[in-house]
Structures are given as C-alpha cells and as structure tokens.
Amino acid sequence: MVKTRARYRRCDDGVDPLGPEGEGARVRSRGHVSPVDLLAQVPLFRGCSKDELKRIDRASTTVDFPAGAELCKEGAVGRELILIIDGTASVERGGNEIATVGPADFIGEMSLLDGGPRSATVTATSDVHALVLPPREFWQVLDEVPAIAHKLLGTIAARLRATDEIAYRA
Questions:
Q1: Are strands 61-65 and 96-101 parallel, antiparallel or unpaired?
Q2: According to the model, what pLDDT value does residue 16 have?
Q3: Mind listing the domains of the chain with CATH numbers?
Q4: Staple 69 to which of 36, 65, 91, 107, CB 3.0 to 4.6 Å?
Q5: Alpha-carbon dihedral sign for residues 42, 43, 46, 48
Q6: Sequential DSSP letters for 58-79
Q7: How many CB atoms are located within 10 Å of the residue 102 CB?
Q8: Short-list 136, 95, 162, 112, CA closest to 5
Q9: Rg of the chain's alpha carbons, rounded to an integer?
C-alpha cells in the first residue's frame, strides 16, 4: 500500500516532484515490516500503545530519499517532521557538518514548531527511508498522543543544551 498526502503525490514513475524540499523523494510502500512494529522501535514513540502507534502510522507518509538528496535545506520553508527509519544523513549549517543522523533520529521539528526557516541542510549520505508527518497531522498526533510531546520536548532540550555547551566553549 502506498500512502500519500497532498504534498506527497505519487507520480507515474514514483518520483515526487515536490518532495519535502523539492527534489529526489520517492513515496513507497513499507514492504514486509509491520509499520506499528517499526514505530515501536523508535525512542520517540516508545511507551505508546498499539492504538497510538496505529494513529501515528495513519498520519504519516513513507518517503525514500536516494543518497545525495536533500531532506531539507537551510533557510528554506519547511513544515514537516521527518523521522529517519533507515539510512544516514549529514547535517550542515553554514556549509559545515555539525552532525550525522540515522535510524530513529528526527529532523524538522524546529521549523514545524515555530514556523521559522530550516536551521540546517540535511543531505542523505546513503539511501534514506523516512516517515514524514505534515503539520496538520503532527499537531493532531500530539493532541491525541501527549507522551510524544513530552519526549519531543526532552529531545529539543538536550539538543539546545549540547548547542549551548559548544557555543560557550568557544
């Protein structure tokens, strides 16, 4: 089954010309792995019930990014939360690599939460299989599954703390 949303339309060749940031994304089915089992392995969703995981699954879209594709671009408008299921990506800010993300990591939460531009460019360093939560679905899931909001806040605080430590060491 191929899941689609308005922003992630499937074209005849499977390439989504819109993609999260404009190019290179493919929408596909999840294969043989149960989506609920996949989500249960992600730390952000640990502790969620099967019903809550099913709700998250229904709200998300599966997207594949080939190696070299930009998942998001610094300064661009972006409103989706992207959760990496498989693969790795480089996070760059101002042209400098600042991190590497991989399975169970998520990106895009800052732009989604505050409506500001993307704070970094994230480029797939391998093929990336991801779940994408568009804004309306994201907010509905947070309303229905408050445990996710608590974990999201904890992750954002940890990222801010790490950034502060780097900034004040210099």
A1: unpaired
A2: 37
A3: 15-135+144-169 (2.60.120.10)
A4: 65
A5: negative
A6: HH-EEEEE-TT-EEE-TTS---
A7: 14
A8: 136
A9: 15
Sign of dihedral through CA atoms 156, 161, 167, 170?
Answer: negative
Structure-token pair, residue 38:
């996949």
Q: Tell me how far apart the alpha carbons of residues 36 and 123 are, in angstroms, rounded to a whole number.
A: 27
Q: Give this prediction's pTM.
A: 0.74
Check whether 136 has a pLDDT greater than 60. yes
Distances (CA, A) of 67 to 5, 70, 92, 137: 23, 9, 15, 27
Q: How far is CA 11 from CA 15, 16, 83, in A?
A: 6, 6, 23
Mean pLDDT of the chain: 80
Question: Would you state the pLDDT for residue 120?
Answer: 94
Contact 112, 141 (CB under 8 A): no
